[in-house]
Design a protein that fits this description.
Length: 188
């Protein structure tokens, strides 16, 4: 059993007879009253996100997990297929298990969290940044680098991202997967 002081991003816990992954947390120590931990939890079975507050010192049941590297192969409806890079075993996961499936490109290496007690895959952690090619956007205008104005663009995986006005079709861009935001243009 762990306590609220052990809470960190990515920790998997049992709460209300379901397995949840902590995606956000904040320790709060008000001037008056006891401390508490405000959390955002994602259900690893349904994908639903809930807010919950734990009182300081509460016991929480931690799920023992293991992380393994997998290569993304292809989508098939709502199922995504992955291959273990060590032993070449393949697994399929529901779309809800992925943090940001819109930025997943075939051949991408991801980390899959697996519950050790029954070898059940729980969730997929994407790389922090991905490099994707812009397939559709309005033409860029020379000299539009000084403003913070953006325009919509579609990348090779089909995801929509707001990019600066100087980005053109065919440009490779770096995207932060957690927020789905443009970071920079990548020079080849």
């Amino acid at each position: 059993m762990a306590s609220t002081s052990d809470i960190k991003k990515g920790l998997c816990i049992v709460y209300n007879n379901d397995t949840y992954k902590i995606i956000e947390f904040q320790h709060v120590k008000p001037g008056k009253g006891p401390a508490f931990v405000r959390t955002k939890l994602r259900s690893l079975t349904s994908g639903k996100v809930i807010d919950n507050t734990f009182s300081a010192g509460n016991k929480i049941e931690e799920v023992r997990v293991e992380t393994r590297k997998y290569q993304y192969l292809y989508p098939e409806g709502d199922m995504y297929h992955f291959m273990n890079t060590d032993d070449y075993n393949q697994i399929s996961l529901q779309k809800e298990a992925l943090d940001s499936p819109d930025f997943l490109k075939e051949g991408e290496i991801v980390t899959i969290i697996i519950r050790t007690s029954d070898e059940l895959p729980l969730s997929v952690d994407m790389p922090i940044h991905v490099y994707l090619e812009v397939t559709h956007t309005d033409p860029g205008v020379k000299g539009n680098t000084a403003t913070n104005a953006t325009k919509p663009a579609i990348v090779e995986t089909g995801a929509k991202v707001n990019v600066p006005l100087f980005i053109n079709e065919g440009d490779k861009i770096k995207i932060e997967t957690e927020k789905g935001t443009y970071i920079e243009r990548v020079k080849e």
